Amino acid sequence: MITMISTVYNYYLTTYSGKNNLVNNNAHKKSELREVYNNILRISRKSPLYKIKLDEGVRKYAINLKESAYALKDVTDSLDADSLFGSRNKKASSSNEEKIGARYLGNEAGSEDSDFDIQVSHLATPQINTGNFLSQNKLSIPKGEYSFDINIDDYSYELQFKINDSDNNRVLQDRLARLINRSDIGITAEVIESRHGNSALQLTSQTTGVAFKSQIFSIDDNPENPGSIVNYLGLNQMTTEPSSARFLLNGIEKTSSSNTFTINKGFEITLHDTTGDDTVHIGFKQDFDSLMDSLDDLSSRYNYIVDMASGNSSGNGDASRLIREIHHIAKMHKSSLESAGLSFEENGHLKVDNALVSQTVNDGSIKDSLNKITAFKNDLSRVADNITINPMHYVNKIMISYPNPVRSFSNPYVTSIYTGMMFNGYI
Asked: Are the C-beta atoms of 166 and 138 separated by less than 8 Å?
C-alpha cells in the first residue's frame, strides 16, 4: 500500500506539480472537502467490491483522467451566459470611432450606466506661443550667455544657452527648440517658416484646458542677459489660448480640461473631433476574443478527454463506459450546439465555428446561443464531477461481490488515493 501511494505522489510531482493546471479547484474550503469525503463514502457504500490491477499504467490513467476532468470543470464553471456577458468580458463601443473613442477600464462600479450619448461642441486645446518671424540668415542680438525661465503651474525651469558670433536667427531657433524638447518639461518646440521665408520658434503645451489660470505657461527673461532674448524672439506671444472641451453627456452640459477623461470611473473617453448636431452613442459590446478563448478552452478540454477515452489502447481504462457517457451528451445537444457555432466532427471532437459565433455576436443572438451552450456544459460538468470523485469507475476491474443490501460498508480506499483525499494544492 505504501509503495502504491508513493508511486501516485511521485507521478503527481513529476507531471503536475508547479504547472498551476487548476485555477479554481486547487484550494477548497473545509465544507467543500467534507462534501467530497461524504460523496466518496456514499459511492463506496453503493458500489460492489472490485479487484483492480494497480499497475503503473492504471495509476497514471486514473490520475490523468482526474486532472483532465478538473481542467474541464474549471472551464465549464466559468462558461455561462451571465459571466460571459458580465463587464469583464465586454468592451466599450462607440457609434462613431472617428469622432469619439471609448475604452472600458474594467471597473465594476462604473458599469451601472453602461449606455450614454455624447455631443461635442468644442475640443480641449493647448496653449500655443508663436514667436517673431525673423530673417533666417541674420542675427540682431549681442553674443554671450543667456538664460530664461519657463513657468508651468508652481514650477519654474531655467534654460541656459550661448550665442556665438557665427550664429544666425535660424541656428539660434533650432538650438532653443532642441533644448526645450530635451528638457521634457511639458512643452513641445518647433521652428516654423512663413511664406516669405522667415522663421519663428513656436511653443505648444502638452496639456490642454484651463482651470483657474488663463495660461498654462509663461516665459521670463533673466535680467542679467546682455539683451532681452524673450522679446527678441517673441517667446511670450500667445497666439492660441488654452481651452477646455465642452460637450453634452445625456443632454447635460459638461467640460473637461483634457480630450481624454473617464466617465463613472469605468469608461475612458477620447474626443477626436466635434460632432456638430449629431450625437455619438457609447455602450458595451461583447468581447469577441474573450468569448472565443472560452469556447476554445471548452473544446480543447472536451477533446482531450475524448482522445483519452477513445485512444486507450493499453487496456488500462474502461473506455467504452466513458465514451458512452460523452457520446450521449453530444448526441443530446448536437442540434442546438450547431446553431450556436459548435459542431462535432467524425472523430468525436468538438469544433468551434468562429464565423458562426461572430455572426451571433453581430446579430445579437449570442446570448440565446450561450444559453444552449450552458445546457451542454452543465451535463459535461456533471460527468466531470463523477470523474473527479471516482476515476476508478472508468478503470478496468473485476467485480468480486455486490454490496450488502441490508448493511452497507464503505470502501473508501478504492477512490481515496486518486481523488478526494489528495489534491494538487497540498504538494
From this structure: no
pLDDT confidence band for 189 (50 / 70 / 90):
very high
Measured over the CA atoms of residue 118, residue 122, residue 127 and residue 129, the dihedral's sign is positive
Residue position matching grid coordinates 472551464: 75
Residue type, 369: S
Write down the H helix ranges in 79-151.
81-84
Beta-carbon count within 10 A of 194 CB = 10
CA distance 329 to 82: 23
Cell numbers given for 127: 496653449
For residues 413 and 49, the answer to whether their CB atoms sit within 8 Å is: no
Whether this prediction's pTM lies above 0.70 is answered by no
Who contacts 355 (Cβ-Cβ below 8 Å, separation ≥6)?
none
Residue 217, pLDDT score: 94
Sign of the dihedral defined by the CA atoms of residues 217, 222, 225, 231, in that order: positive
Cell numbers placing 422:
489528495
What's the CA angle centered on 304, arms 302 and 306, to 5 degrees?
A: 70
